[in-house]
């Protein structure tokens, strides 16, 4: 796989069935302010190595513009830091569905997510190995 920073349609977690399975049967860990829920998926069903989704609670962020900004930031920092995860999954012939959930009650500072997302990816790699 070429080292690409794209986040295309095949990588997005959109299947309602897979999302329900992920939250019902998936494993999780926390790197504050990001909670990660992940699950290995059947290799024959999905084309992409990783299917990723992002979310922010409407309980903590009443305005949709705030939630959308948080989701945009999560997607962007995942996109920039995903290459080690893709290399690990390709080497071990695994496929995974992962959901990044922002759980803090305040809007993220601009320096928080660029620091935390590489830690999240490393912890996810360790959890999958």
Provide a descriptive summary of the structure in words.
There is one protein chain. The chain has 4 helices and 4 strands. By secondary structure, it is α+β, with helices and mostly antiparallel strands. Helix 2 (64-81) crosses helix 4 (112-128) and helix 3 runs parallel beside helix 4. It is globular.
Radius of gyration using CA atoms only: 14 Å
Distance between the termini: 20 Å
The number of distinct helices, counting runs of at least 4 residues, comes to: 4
Order of strands side by side in the largest beta sheet?
1-2-4-3
- Mean pLDDT value: 92
Q: Please outline the major beta sheet.
A: 4 strands, mixed
Number of strands: 4
Summarize the helix and strand pattern as letters. HEEEHHEH
Shape: globular
Q: Proportion of β residues?
A: 15-25%
Low-confidence segments: none
Structural class per helix/strand content?
A: alpha+beta
Helix content: 40-55%
């Amino acid at each position: 796989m070429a080292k690409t920073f794209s986040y295309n349609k095949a990588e997005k977690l959109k299947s309602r069935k897979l999302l329900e399975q992920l939250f019902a049967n998936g494993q999780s860990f926390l790197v504050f302010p990001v909670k990660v829920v992940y699950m290995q998926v059947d290799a024959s069903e999905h084309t992409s190595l990783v299917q990723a989704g992002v979310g922010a609670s409407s309980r903590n962020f009443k305005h949709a513009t705030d939630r959308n900004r948080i989701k945009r930031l999560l997607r962007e920092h995942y996109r920039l830091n995903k290459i080690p995860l893709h290399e690990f999954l390709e080497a071990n012939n695994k496929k995974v569905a992962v959901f990044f959930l922002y759980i803090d009650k305040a809007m993220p500072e601009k320096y928080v997510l660029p620091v935390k997302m590489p830690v999240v990816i490393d912890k996810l790699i360790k959890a999958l190995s």
